[in-house]
Amino acid sequence: MRFASFTCDGQARIGVVEGEEVALLPLALGDLRDVIAGGDAALQAVAAAQRGGKLPRLALDRLRLLPPLQRLRRDVLCVGWNYWDHFDEGKGKREGQDVPRPQAPTFFTKSPDTVIGPRDDIAFDARISAKWDYEAELALVIGTDGRSIRADSAMRHVWGYCLANDVSQRDLQRRHGGQWLKGKSIDGTMPLGPFLVTADELDPESVRLQCLVNGELMQDASVAQMAFPIPELIAELSFGMTLQAGDLVITGTPAGVGNAREPQVFLRAGDTVTVRGTGLGQLVNRLVDTDLYHQSSVPAMTGNDTGGAHAGNL
Ligand code: MG
Q: How far is the CA of 192 from the centre of ligand 1 (A)?
């Protein structure tokens, strides 16, 4: 099944996508986090509601889609450097923070307040960063709790998949001790969706991921190129640490990010970023000037050292 979250009569609702329509599910089923936590019984209730044939149908293209998950119980769990061509393209461009090729997955987290809908504007403020970058990623949602999950049973813990754009601020990523949290956690900057596709409907290795900036193809790769495939990611991430139903994991981005280009390409207000994935639809988001700086005592980022170019200059 393919689930969507959206607003209907001013209320957040969920539905099942059927072609160009969405079957509106009863309020009693709650949101998608409730459906995920409800396990097989909740999915059976959804299927029964569909079979009843009385669910209102809404035109998909007239809905304001919300991120599939709006309530996360903790930070978004993230994987870095999970495509070797992306790891290699960044060599010499990490401002003294280069490391040897990792032997195990690289993990970090980002704030849940980054999450926005699949068509929402990305909050942009040039004073917060001079190095705004895009990252097309496959996201997965955990469906069954587990700790120290074995790789050979890990796929049973995946509830479904969607797309994410892990918009990053490269200068903030480097500025704070080489830890990535800060440069990955600016409010209202991570589009998620457009749908949550249940794991039985998608072979993640068949997904081709693409990212376009203002219509120009910047990233184009197969998820099968992952350095550490999903079962290994789940085994390592859950090692001694419980993953819970509803946890969101973003699985890394392939080559082609703006920071690694010659010349570098950084996003600015007015740019439109599209992230596509086979069987998953697309995220289309515009960067819009937003006051994220307020009266901060931290000096605005200037970018004097970036030598950056805008996508339109390529
Ligand atoms: Mg990323």
A: 13
- Given a contact cutoff of 8 angstroms between Cβ atoms, the answer to whether 278 and 107 are in contact is no
pLDDT at position 311: 34
Distance 134 CA to ligand 1 centre (A): 8
Q: How many Å is the maximal CA-CA distance in the chain?
A: 62
Mark which of 66, 91, 111 sits at the end of a domain: 66
Please indicate, yes or no, whether residues 177 and 88 belong to a single structural domain of this protein. yes
In a domain, 304, yes or no: yes
Please say whether the beta carbons of 68 and 193 come within 8 A: yes
Cβ < 5 A residues, ion ligand 1: 135, 166, 253
* Burial of residue 8 (number of CB atoms within 10 Å: 0-12, 13-18, 19+): middle
Ligand 1 center from residue 108 Cα (angstroms): 9
Mind listing the pLDDT tens digit for each residue in 172-210?
999 998 889 999 999 999 999 999 999 999 999 999 999
Lowest mean pLDDT, pick from 191-195, 228-232, 249-253, 305-309: 305-309
Instruction: Tell me: do 43 and 113 sit in the same domain.
Output: no
Centroid of ligand 1 to alpha carbon of 167 (angstroms): 8
What's residue 243's pLDDT?
Answer: 98
Range of the structural domain that residue 233 is part of: 76-313
Q: Percent of the chain at pLDDT above 70?
A: 96
Q: Give residue 309 CA to ligand 1 midpoint distance, Å.
A: 21
User: Which pLDDT score is estimated for 149?
Assistant: 98
d(CA 168, ligand 1 centre) in Å: 8
Is there a single domain that holds both residue 164 and residue 306? Answer: yes
Among 66, 95, 120, the domain boundary falls at 66
Residues 291-305, mean pLDDT to the nearest whole number = 89
The alpha carbon of 300 and the centre of ligand 1 are apart by a number of angstroms equal to 24
Is-above-0.90 flag for pTM? yes
Within this chain, do residues 85 and 175 fall inside the same structural domain, yes or no? yes
- 190 alpha carbon – ligand 1 mean position (Å): 10
Residue 71 lies in a domain: no
Angstrom distance (rounded) from CA 308 to CA 112: 29
Classify residue 149: in a domain, yes or no.
yes
